[in-house]
Amino acid sequence: MSAFADLARFYDVVYADKDYAAEANYVARLLDTHGHNPRSVLELGAGTGRLAVELARGGLRVLGIDASSDMVELANGRQRQLGVEGISFLAADATRFRAGQRFDAVIACFHVLNYMASPQALTAAFATAAAHLEPGGLFLFDSWHGPAVRAQGPEARVRDLMVEGAPVVRIAEPHHDPGQQTVDVRYRFFVQPSSAETWQLIEETHHLRYLFREDIATACRDAGFELVCGEAWLSGAPLDERTWSACYLAKRIRGDDWQ
Asked: Domain check: are 38 and 58 in the same one?
């Protein structure tokens, strides 16, 4: 079962305050800063499609994939509702997907690569990116920054939400295994439908692996990328132990046929 199999309908409510327009501008600016003005983008882990919509509004053609068919259904519904052209979404595994075409850039945002919870899965995701880029093409992605996770440690969080008029309590409880660089986050959503007196429990556990620069450098090397830069997501500040979310840019330098 993929992550968000049961929680997809809560996703946009949980992240309602997320500024996708600002994130799309940041992605476009970072690509442009490094001499790349893409017209087509493959997004790995597109979720409910909100970032793809903003990128398309900026003139990009976007193909978004996500392992959760429920998330893809929501993304396609958003595209139809808004009528934004130049976007399509597919349910697919980022470690195995092959579109049979090249793109100007590949992106994987909002910690998608942390769901590649083994070195082998991470390498496979990088191979997917390489398969869809010509030499010189850029792969932009973010990640939980290992030094910050080790220094700060993940914390349990509780949020009160309203979903379709029903009160919802979300509890996120992390279990950190420093030896494996993993965090298992147990999500529990307590929902009280208006027609029921009792609360309904929906839960999933998400298995994530945070990354150090060495992990990323190895995946880049194995898939034929050169690591261009790393910085704090959105702010562009240097990475340190206070930076939980890191953004990296890699350039494809090897012309192997990864198809």
From this structure: yes
